[in-house]
Structure formats: C-alpha cells, structure tokens
Amino acid sequence: MITIKSSSKSREEIQKFWHELSGNWEGYCWIDNQERPEIFENRELGNYPCTDNHFIYEACLCQQGKSIEIKQVDDTWLVSEVSWQENDIKDEDIKVYRMAKDENRKLRFAEIWEEEPDPNCDDFPVFKLKKHIFTGFEK
What we know:
This protein is mostly beta strands. The chain folds into two domains: 81 residues, no CATH class; 52 residues, no CATH class. It is 7% helix and 58% strand. It is built from one helix and nine strands, in the order βαββββββββ. It has a six-stranded antiparallel sheet. A hairpin with a 2-residue loop joins strand 4 and strand 5. The longest helix is centred in the N-terminal third of the chain and has 10 residues. The protein is globular, with a radius of gyration of 16 Å.
C-alpha cells in the first residue's frame, strides 16, 4: 500500500528534516544559486547544503521503498514523503524523463492513477493522476 504524507516546513524545519534523513539516498538537490543540482548516488546526504542566504529550490530523493520530494514555494518548503512496498509499483507505472541541465541523466517517476467519478463525464469513473513518485535514476 502506498502512503503519502505531505507537509510544509519553515527554513529551520527543513534544515532539521534534512539532518534527520539517514542512510544512503539516490537523487538530487538543487540549490537556488547553483547552475546544476548536486547528485546523490547511493550515498549519505551529509550536512544541510545551504547557507543562510541560499536555499533548496527542489530535491528528489529515494531509497528502498521511500521517496521524498522537496519544493520551495515563497518562504515555505513543501515536502512529500511517499512509502511503498515492492509490489505497489509496477514496471508499467514507471515513466522516464530527461533531467534538466544534464542530458545524460534520466529520472524515473512512478505515475499513480486512481479511478474516480468525474462530474465532467456524467459521473462515470475515469482515471486521474494522483501522484508522481521519484524512484531514482535510469540505469
């Protein structure tokens, strides 16, 4: 079963959240003043990557059965934490996208669709995209 936890965090809260992430991660962290994101390939995240004058603009991280996406909006960081079991995501759920600023690196996202009635379709059930889940880099 896929579980999704969404929250918003202040600058202090996002720093604390980053420091509490343990283990090896795969993904990227893009700082507002950097030309390219920092890449993590099965390694620890280390210290919070920002100074007082800079901030995480976007980050996508994953490890076995867990994905974290961080997006900065105004003075808040939106955090989405997703957990899943191996059989929750199938090969046909995976879509691959080229990473901006790095044509050789490709990102894997699972697309989670759910059927629900749609008032625009006479309340017939239609599939609607519920979540993109970062699942790592294409190997």
